[in-house]
Design goal:
It is elongated, with a radius of gyration of 27 Å. The strands form 2 sheets. Strands 1-2-3-10-5-8-11 form a 7-stranded antiparallel sheet, with helices on one face. Strands 4-9-6-7 form a 4-stranded antiparallel sheet, with no helix packed on it. 44% of the residues lie in helices and 23% in strands. It has 10 helices and 11 strands. 29% of the residues are buried. The chain is of the alpha+beta class and 290 residues long.
């Protein structure tokens, strides 16, 4: 089958549409921007794809699901496939908006995680700059080539990454009962991180945030899979490394303490004694006698 990408451009609008739709996960179908004339109206109609709009300037009206919304700069709205809607620019302060359409098996999940639903098709967004840049890049990536298709869909994913992060950080949303990966994947990732950073100041809450889960979930996953908490895993690793250094090097106790992530030698000695039943100095002396 031959595909034709349509690219239109003028002083008031720029549009890229009729894009290839063979991506099963997430695929851009069209995108664009427009400075609308006063009272410019689109619809009512039904789309066969999802369509996201963000308002950068001006005002307008959206009717969807028999509800009317008065929108302005900083608002965004999401139209779902098969849902009838119309929208119209304000008479005195017509809006300027950018949009993108998309399809794919993950489209519904992305929409939900970004804070949109059939019942709540609008919300404020704080990432207009990032989204605007992505859409501009989509419009510049208009060649019918495999490279440009990958770039367009990558930019679409960046848009949703920004929207989901914005929803989570600014509106407390994006929390799902299901995780993107099994608990074992998070544990493996955390263990690898700890193995590379055990000699640094390391907080489990920061580690959990780094890999994208909360501390309680990471802790429960650790206990379920390896039988101890991430904090216990960190301490055990540090103590094993400390014992090796005490046995195999001439480093001072203070140097060993620093090498395994303890800036305070007294704190290190206390933990070491709890873990090994003797102080680091006694442990070193015993090994030297053998």
């Amino acid at each position: 089958m031959n595909y034709l990408v349509r690219y239109s451009s003028s002083l008031r609008y720029k549009v890229l549409e009729d894009l290839k739709k063979d991506s099963v996960d997430l695929c851009l179908t069209y995108c664009g921007w427009e400075y609308c004339h006063p009272c410019y109206r689109y619809g009512p109609n039904k789309r066969d794809t999802y369509v996201f709009h963000m308002i950068l300037e001006g005002k307008g009206t959206l009717e969807i699901n028999k509800k009317i919304y008065k929108l302005e700069a900083g608002d965004a709205f999401l139209l779902e496939p098969g849902v009838e809607a119309w929208y119209e620019a304000d008479r005195d302060d017509p809006w300027y908006y950018k949009w993108f359409g998309f399809v794919g098996l993950r489209a519904g999940e992305c929409v939900s995680r970004a804070g949109f639903s059939n019942k709540n098709p609008i919300r404020k967004i704080n990432c207009t700059k990032e989204l605007s840049q992505c859409i501009d890049q989509m419009l510049e990536t208009h060649k019918l080539s495999y490279e440009d298709e990958l770039k367009r869909n990558a930019l679409l994913m960046l848009c949703f990454s920004s929207l989901i992060e914005d929803y989570r950080k600014n509106f407390g949303g994006g929390v799902s009962k299901t995780r993107a990966y099994p608990g074992s994947v998070y544990v493996k990732h955390a263990m690898e991180y700890i193995n590379h950073h055990y000699n640094e100041k390391l907080k489990i809450s920061e580690l959990a945030d780094f890999i994208g889960v909360n501390r309680s979930y990471l802790t429960s996953s650790f206990k379920k899979i390896i039988g101890c908490s991430p904090q216990e895993f960190l301490v055990n690793l540090r103590m094993d490394k400390a014992k090796s250094l005490l046995e195999e090097t001439d480093l001072s106790i203070n140097a060993v303490s620093n090498a395994v992530g303890y800036a305070d030698q007294l704190a290190f000695s206390k933990v070491f004694k709890q873990h090994c039943g003797m102080s680091p100095r006694m442990y070193k002396e015993e090994r030297e006698l053998k």
